[in-house]
Amino acid sequence: xxQRPLALVTGASAGIGATFARQLAVxxxxxxxxxxxxxxxxxxxxxxxxTHGAKCEVLAADLAVDADxxxxxxxxxxxxxxxxxxxxxxxxTKGKYFHADLLGQVNMHRVHVxxxxxLTHAALKKMVEQQAGGIVNVSSVAGFTLSGGGTSYSAxxxxxxxxxxxxxxxxxxxxxxxxxxxxxxxFTYSEFHxxxxxxxxxxxxxxxxxxxxxxxxxxxxxDRGQLFVIPDFRYRWLVRLLALVPSPLIYWGAIxxxxxxxxx
Length: 264
Ligand SMILES: NC(=O)c1ccc[n+]([C@@H]2O[C@H](COP(=O)([O-])OP(=O)(O)OC[C@H]3O[C@@H](n4cnc5c(N)ncnc54)[C@H](OP(=O)(O)O)[C@@H]3O)[C@@H](O)[C@H]2O)c1
Prior knowledge:
Layout: E1 6-10, H1 15-26, E2 30-35, H2 38-52, E3 56-60, H3 66-78, E4 84-87, H4 102-130, E5 134-138, H5 151-173, E6 179-183, H6 192-195, H7 211-223, E7 228-229, H8 233-244, H9 247-263
Parallel strand pairs: 1-2, 1-4, 2-3, 4-5, 5-6, 6-7
């Protein structure tokens, strides 16, 4: 019997990560589910086993903690084969950088940058050798924009876009068939905004995407080897337009946005 593909999803206990796990299970994958909330992961594992016969391993890890990241990387080294790595775990923070709690800012860089550096290195070693596999780095439209209020978030997602682009070029120039993708969603229904207690109604309802749509666009793009996936044409146009706007105008808009944030 053919071996089932294996996928490791970080931040699988909620939102976009849980949706990746569900859609990959539909594709016949077994899964390694990573996050801090073990009970959530266990419930998802039981659901995917019952509905799709997916064998799921629950790996509790806080990706802001070095030892936990090393444990997840070690697990990647141990498995005989890895077909997908979904670097999805992430969170937002509220308030300007110099007012915000420093630990939250440091942890954001640990989860959005350092954990991804290590897990991607472990996965790519395996995937390049096995001559197959796909990595999705869950970035954001914020990776193309500037914000006077979400400095670390925007900076880490800009980094993630550039990191993924670099890997894409290295893989292509090595003739490797391994695929990498930066998935850049706009506002998406998940627990993200509940965690930072942001009122969703400040964003027009029509701009919100479903996690199901975002993930199916990502997996469709991965099948085609697409480097950047920006779900929904309006966000694609926004990113294209922003690339044409001169920096002083972008700064003016970001500063005005930052002032509005202070008033609110
Ligand atoms: N929702 C949006 O509007 C939106 C837009 C663009 C990009 N994104 C990106 O999408 C990704 C997923 O976010 P989401 O919207 O699905 O939010 P979510 O529903 O809040 O899920 C976030 C996931 O990340 C995990 N996580 C957070 N900190 C972690 C840590 N220190 N260690 C391990 N896991 C951690 C959480 O699990 P535990 O709490 O159980 O650890 C949870 O499973 C993030 O990278 C986010 O930046 C979201």
